[in-house]
Amino acid sequence: MVVSQSPVDIFKSQAHTGLVLRDVDAFVAHFAPDCVLHDTGESEPRVGREALREWVTAYLESMSDADVEYLTLFSAGEFVLAEFVIRGMYQGTGAGPSGTRVALQYCVIDQIRDGLVLSETVYGVPQQLDRQLSAPIGFGGSLKPALSVPPTTGTQPSAFERAHGTVDRRR
């Protein structure tokens, strides 16, 4: 690890190597051996590199072809705060047969000292994924998924059309 990097550079490097390059070893190497990961979606923190490895491996098993867009990124002393969107192909529970494209927004706070992440707190919104898996989506540059109306073959409105008040019979 290059200690001369700024905390922001270290944060971006670990996010890129883990989420985009999918290099778990390089991702984990950014963290102190006794690092603490607080994922607010979990009841207990994960302590140590092996626990971190398990966490990121599970995430990568359900998400591929990811990119990261930073919305807010700044540091104060040894702390970095980042608000970002991960766009990728979700392949976990509820996804289509070949996956479902999703955009998930997170806020992360890292404490970085001597070039290594000592602690990371991850805030996400689990309902974002649920909402995106319940209807076809498109991105259009927005965090809010764009809804598209699937074609209906019968004369009755589909469940999607009834739920969203859209009926198009010009077929």
TrEMBL record:
<dbReference type="Pfam" id="PF12680">
    <property type="entry name" value="SnoaL_2"/>
</dbReference>
<protein>
    <recommendedName>
        <fullName>SnoaL-like domain-containing protein</fullName>
    </recommendedName>
</protein>
<dbReference type="InterPro" id="IPR032710">
    <property type="entry name" value="NTF2-like_dom_sf"/>
</dbReference>
<dbReference type="InterPro" id="IPR037401">
    <property type="entry name" value="SnoaL-like"/>
</dbReference>
<feature type="region of interest" description="Disordered">
    <location>
        <begin position="146"/>
        <end position="171"/>
    </location>
</feature>
<feature type="domain" description="SnoaL-like">
    <location>
        <begin position="22"/>
        <end position="117"/>
    </location>
</feature>
<feature type="compositionally biased region" description="Basic and acidic residues">
    <location>
        <begin position="161"/>
        <end position="171"/>
    </location>
</feature>
